Amino acid sequence: MDQRNELPKPPNPERFTDAEILKPEHTALIVVDMQNDFLDPKGKFVKWKRDISPMQAVVPHVNQLVEAAHKAGVPVIYTLGYEDLEFRDEPGQWRYVRFESDGEVCSKKGTWGAEFYKDIHPRAGDIVVEKHDWSAFTGTDALGNRLDQILREMGTITIVVAGVKTEVCVDDTVIEGKSRGFFVVIPREAVATDRVNMQEPHLEKWDFKSGKVMRTDEVIQNWPAKGSRS
C-alpha cells in the first residue's frame, strides 16, 4: 500500500493529559524578565507612571512555581531582558523612536534596573539566559548556549512560562515555544502586564492556539516532590 495515501493515526488522548504533559522528567519552568525596572517601585515603569501592581501580584505565584519545580526536579530557567539601543535591530530601533524616545530605555544592561527584583532569587543550579529581544529563545546562557539547545539537551518536551510582560516577552516566548515543537503551559496567575486590557485577550489566544492556560495550583499539583531528573 502506498503510504502516501494512508490517513494519519488518530491521537491517543492518554498522551495528552495534564499529568503526562507536565511530567517533571520532561518539563522546564521558564521565568521571564522579573527585573527591577518592571517590578520595583523605584524602577523605570513607576517613573514612567505605569501601574506595576498587576505585575507585582505575580511574584508570589512565580515563587510558588519555582519552589515546586525545585522539589520535583524541574529545571528552572530565568531570563534577563536588556533594552539597550546598541543591541537592537532596525525594527527595534524603529519601535524606540515610535514609543520610547524620552532618552531612556528600560532594563539597560549593567544597571540596577536590569537586575532581578529583590523577591526573585535564582538558586545554585538554576540557569540564567540573557536576551536582547523579547522571546526567551533569542537569549543565551553564560556559555553561549541558546535556550532551544539548553532545553533539547535536557530532554525537555514541555515548557511552563511565567513572568512579565504578558503582551511582549511572555507572548513571544509562548508563540516561539509552540512553533519549535514544545508543549506550552501558562499559569494564569503567574503572568501579568501593566496594560491590563491586554491580559485576558492574550490568555484566551494562548489557550486556543499556542498551549494551555492553567491555574498555578493546577500546574503544581502535577509536580510531586521526587528528587532530581535523571
Question: What does it look like?
Answer:
- It is a single chain.
- The protein is α/β, with parallel strands linked by helices and 230 residues long.
- 35% of the residues lie in helices and 15% in strands.
- The chain has helices at 18-21, 36-39, 44-47, 53-56, 59-72, 90-99, 147-154, 166-179, 199-210, 216-221; strands at residues 27-32, 76-81, 127-131, 158-164, 183-187, 191-192, 212-214.
- Strands 1, 2, 3, 4, 5, 6 and 7 form a 7-stranded parallel β-sheet that branches.
- Helix 8 (166-179) packs parallel to helix 9 (199-210).
- The longest helix has 14 residues, at 59-72.
- The chain starts with 17 loop residues before the first helix and ends in a 9-residue tail after the last helix.
Features:
single chain, 230 residues, alpha/beta, 7-stranded parallel beta sheet, 10 helices
Strand/helix succession: HEHHHHEHEHEHEEHEH
Q: Total strand count, please?
A: 7
Number of helices: 10
Largest sheet data: 7 strands, parallel
Gyration radius (Cα, Å) is 18 Å
* Regions with little confidence, pLDDT below 50 for 5+ residues: none
User: Structural class of the secondary structure composition?
Assistant: alpha/beta
The overall pLDDT, averaged over residues, is 91
* Overall spatial form: globular
